[in-house]
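Sanity check record (used in CI):
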Amino acid sequence: NTKKVTKLGLEVPKVSENLGEWYSQVLVKGEMIEYYDVSGCYVLRPWAYRIWELIQEWFDARIKRNPLNVRNCYFPMFVSQSALEREKEHIADFAPEVAWVTKSGETDLAEPIAIRPTSETGMYPAFSKWIQSYRDLPLKLNQWNSVVRWEFKHPQPFLRTREFLWQEGHNAYATREEAERDVLITLEKEKFAGGEFTTTCEAYVASSGRAIQGATSHYLGTNFAHMFDVHFEHPDTHEKTFVHQISFGMTTRTIGVMVMVHGDDRGLVLPPRIASIQVIIVPCGVGASTANEVKENLTKTCLDVCNRLKGNSLIDNNDENENSVAQHHKSSTIIRADTDLRDNYSPGWKFNHWELKGVPLRLEIGPKDLDRNQMVAVRRDNGEKLTISLEGCSKDDDGNDKMVVRITELLNQIQQDMYAKAEKELEENVVICRKWSECAAHLAAKRLLLIPFCGRPNCEDNIKRDTTLDDGTAEVGASTMGAKSLCVPFEQPKGDEQLKSNDQCIHPECGLTAGSFTLFGRSY
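Expected output for proline--tRNA ligase:
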């Protein structure tokens, strides 16, 4: 059986051979983006931008409190050519992507001005002015802005765009130990240009079998401090001492990752914590012969349920160990509910519409439900239907509205179940592989590989070269691409699987001792 295709719904399923088209359709039809007349740039519609706002609220509160105590600031988007070229290694990494302003009207500028691809070279001259004494440290700044990286390779909304929104944190410390506190391990190949090591949060998209980077933090050492003369007088030796620096960033790419991981054949599937609307209430079962009194009562009930939900703050929109964030962000802790009372669309059309947009929970209320003093709740993540009592404003033992408590429990359960499903999907597709001869089969099966690896960049180049397919039959950059290093997991295999002292790097041409199990895979 095949579902009838309509203009409202998606026209392709979420399978690997159609994933690019599915992704484009779900973003446009789900009202997340609109395409723009500059290639690689996209309009973020309110449905998507609200997700970014909710991410901002959560993240901003977290970095502003102990132990980070970061403060927000803003630096101009323009960077002088002299500042950008001050650090050759750093600019070399971004040079192909830098966009330059060369004219003002019809007049050529005396010196081209770069649009920031990142802000180190724009911010650190100011750090040099502001930091004179150890008392000025640590200096911890963050800015929410947009950057431009003029990538020419297959732009995709959220995942690879020429302009994107992000936060970038830049901290300076007196000692390496302070700077390293949250930046622990890296791979040399994926190190940030100008940095010493990097940590990364990687996600896995099961439909494509590819990994994608979600967020990073970098220990920059004293490299940039030397280049931009960011130093202080040591309190004991009175010597000129260069600061230790870190940077960290998270972008709107995370929204694209979420869509890829959780979306399905019917559209978006939004986790409740970042859904613009968490609960949509839809009246149904009304026809031309339905009495006006019944219609009015149904509308009144829908509005009453909505107001009861919006007037409470029981929902846990923070992880279980971060409940204190709720004290600072009331907008993130109320239930975000709404009604769809439009009379020019059928209930079925509305159901499909809100499913496509990924609303976590739909409440259906009809005349028969009113007679039974109940409503039907439908979960977006798994389609499960439940009956919930509409009984007045009855209270539980703690004085909370029972209906609101039940909806709250459902939303929290949806959040947990979606995370557990994605985690299980990841765990089932990460395999320990010790034999080079087995790597190709695992990659073809869309798995990520934990392999013994020496850590040398040239050895990684060989692994990527020898796992690249070149038969011309698959999508370029996807199933044909070679495997690359993703990260060195903090949790290494243990017991019988743990790395032994005599284990060699997996590549047959290497012969060196493996330093760790390293996660390899195809990536975006």
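The first helix runs from residue 19 to 29. If this sentence no longer matches the regenerated tokens, the check is flagged for review.
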